Amino acid sequence: MTGSLRRRAVRRATAPAGPPPAAPSAAPPAPHTAPTPVPVTATEPTGQTAPVTTISEEATVTEPQPDEGRGRPALDLLIWDAPNIDMTLSTVIGARPTAASRPRFDAIAAWFVDAAGDPAAPDAPEVEACVFANIPPVVGSLQRWVEALRGFGYAVFARPKSQPDDDIDQAMLDHIEVRTHSHRLRRLVVFSGDGRNFAEPLEDLARTGTQVVVVAFSEVAGYAISSDLLEFIDIEDVPGAFAAPLDRVRLDALPPDGAWLRPTRSLRDFVSNWTARRSS
Are residues 200 and 224 located together in one domain of the fold? Predict the structure, then answer.
């Protein structure tokens, strides 16, 4: 057996979707050739943003090689920013979303998994889809929605929203970071139009060789459309994502004769609110 053997603590990520599957243990060496195991402490990789805990069990592993990353399982990961998609959907259709105008998670799951390729292929990646949601004090029908998502195969990270500025942006970035260390992240699909939080970290990840795809509404995803590193898909172009076409006019798909874009709020209401803010 080449290379020296060491014992190192197995690291468990405290990620929303739980720890990655444990890697298979290396075969034990012959008694007469085995060196004395040396316990070492695992160090956190540079840039790790998610908290990582160390468990007491130890596993015998070979000394890391320069291409150690190739030994990690390949992964296609989907991240869904529920607050952002819901808010931007309201913006583009100019109304509160209804059951008929909300995205169909079953169709989106099928589209995502289909793009991962044949699961029987030798190089087939694992697939994981995670929805991140803020849960208000009055849960209402959200429990049924969460259970439906879980039934479709999505992991759900739910955080209470007790303050107006409570958000799950950092939780999403933390989970992506964890998966870059537990797996070889082959493809990352992010459903979010939030360029303020995602533009820089996603471009950094794309530079490492991961295929990064942003799926959002073109009206609010300028950061992805203008990027030379990120791929962009309008969410309505995902097959079956909506039961019926949305009531919107896309500037990237205008008819030759042009189109009217109606206001999303009353002119009098806007002026009334604007005047009230100025006088307060």
Answer: yes
Secondary element (H or E) of residue 272: helix 267-279
**Per-residue pLDDT reduced to its tens digit, 83-120:** 999 999 998 888 888 888 999 999 999 999 999 999 99
Per the structure block, which two tokens stand in for 220?
A: 């609010």
Going across the sheet that includes 5-13, the strands are: 39-40, 5-13, 52-62
Q: How far is CA 266 from CA 40, 219, 269, in A?
A: 66, 20, 5
What's the rounded Cα separation, in Å, for the pair 152 and 105?
7
Q: Are 210 and 187 within 8 A, CB to CB? A: yes
Cβ contacts of 54 within 8 Å, gap of 6 or more: 9, 10, 11, 12, 41, 42
- pLDDT, one tens digit per residue, over 227-243 is 999 999 999 999 999 99
Identify whether residues 219 and 138 lie together within a single domain.
yes
Q: Do 128 and 35 share a domain, yes or no?
A: no
Type and span of the H or E element at 268:
helix 267-279
